[in-house]
Design brief:
By secondary structure, the chain is mainly alpha-helical. It contains 10 helices and no strands. It is globular and about 60 Å long. It binds adenosine-5'-diphosphate (ADP) and nickel (II) ion.
Length: about 220
């Protein structure tokens, strides 16, 4: 059983750990994903809400992109924290499995979440990459990697596998919309997330139309 106290201690731990991040993985990303996961879980009667909340707070605890491709860094860090809090082994193993599976790994790699709680965390994480917040995060991330905002001469690539996605270099942030963000609405599991995604998806399409219009001097 995951207690409210453990969720609150985990929230405080994540707040302290991610206070100064400027790559789109700051505390407020974890906070929004936590709240979205709560909202989605409320529409899924079979979901273990407390476990879902815990996994949402911990889902990016050590992202592979910031740990030189070590995909086990996240699950390991989550296990260490939850062990220090005397969490149940079954809950620890479930959270580890969710963290291992949650990250987007390229356009050609199908999503693989198996449990309902994992599906909810995955949906909440993807929703936070969409819409106005998603646009803000994409440009913040691009800036942190010294990527140009846009270059009309560089076309988007659809990465066929995780290796290709992980190793891609030299992209620009507008291309990221085609390589990932506009694909996310078709990778959601729950009805509630699909509903929430519609508005966010349209907003990004409108943003891109405006962006090109301004770029080309149409208005
Ligand atoms: P998540 O938190 O959903 O796992 P990622 O870790 O893949 O997402 O990325 C964090 C944020 O940075 C997301 O909003 C994502 O869209 C953005 N991002 C990731 N890669 C790029 C990129 N190459 N260019 C611009 N934004 C990116
Ligand atoms: Ni995330």
């Amino acid at each position: 059983m995951v207690s409210r106290e453990l969720i609150e201690r985990t929230r405080a731990f994540i707040e302290e750990k991610f206070a100064d991040d400027a790559t789109g993985h700051d505390y407020w990303h974890m906070y929004r994903v936590w709240r979205l996961a709560q909202q989605i879980a409320a529409t899924e009667p079979k979901a273990n809400t407390a476990l879902t909340e815990l996994a949402a707070l911990l889902h990016d605890i050590a992202d592979w992109k910031f740990h030189k491709g070590d995909e086990e860094a996240g699950p390991r860090a989550a296990r260490q924290w939850l062990k220090s809090q005397s969490a149940d082994e079954t809950d620890i193993a479930h959270v580890e499995e969710i963290i291992r599976t949650v990250s987007f790994k390229g356009a050609g790699v199908p999503p693989a979440m198996t449990t309902l709680e994992g599906k909810i965390v995955s949906d909440a994480d993807k929703l936070d990459a969409l819409g106005a917040v998603g646009i803000g995060r994409a440009f913040a991330y691009g800036g942190s990697k010294q990527r140009p905002m846009y270059d009309p001469n560089v076309k988007p690539e659809l990465h066929v596998d995780f290796e290709a996605y992980k190793n891609s270099r030299g992209g620009n942030t507008v291309n990221h919309f085609y390589e990932k963000l506009l694909l996310l609405k078709d990778r959601l599991y729950t009805d509630e997330a699909k509903k929430l995604a519609q508005r966010r998806h349209k907003y990004m399409e409108t943003f891109l139309e405006e962006f090109y219009d301004e770029w080309d001097g149409r208005h």
